[in-house]
Amino acid sequence: GAGVSQSPRYKVAKRGQDVALRCDPISGHVSLFWYQQALGQGPEFLTYFQNEAQLDKSGLPSDRFFAERPEGSVSTLKIQRTQQEDSAVYLCASSPDRNTEAFFGQGTRLTVV
Amino acid sequence: QKEVEQNSGPLSVPEGAIASLNCTYSDRVSQSFFWYRQYSGKSPELIMSIYSNGDKEDGRFTAQLNKASQYVSLLIRDSQPSDSATYLCAVGGIQGAQKLVFGQGTRLTINP
User: Fold this and answer.
1) DSSP character for B50?
2) What gap in Å lies between CA A65 and CA A82, rounded to an integer?
3) From the list B45, B46, B95, which residue is nearest A98 (CB)?
4) Each residue of A91-100: pLDDT tens digit?
């Protein structure tokens, strides 16, 4: 596809369950970003990859959050032992390089019950 | 103080009028500025980017940047009902799109 693809679109998890969210960036895009968007708020930065290297993970809220991009294309955001406060839309964005605009995927809406 | 501040609105503008959206930011080293449009339940869509002081026009949209005042705005001319959405201001550092800091967004409603 032409755009950033995320899956699943919706995920309901029981509190304490582990979840994995997938992002397929635009082909050839070097930079990949994960953001978390709570209801009624702007997206908040979680982490940034340049190719397979995770250059910034300062926004990850706790050690329950882990992201990887092992081959420099697809990325997975994993949340262990989910809590209710993890409920949000998780957005992935990619850009051709670090100095240009980022384009967002449709997001994964995570609801922890 | 939030790093990027926007009036959350809602902002109501009659169809055909000019909608003016404002954003201030606190980090003086910010170098890249973006406006995203987000329809309800959808992802943010980039509509404008601006990197230097002054105005940048693209169709009905004009972005204005004043780094001395740490202020960026978006004007939408000839507003259409389809422009009704939340507009997110995002600010980046020297290295462009890395680690964008977003405002909370301004909800804009264009009234027919």
Assistant:
1) E
2) 9
3) B95
4) 999 998 766 7
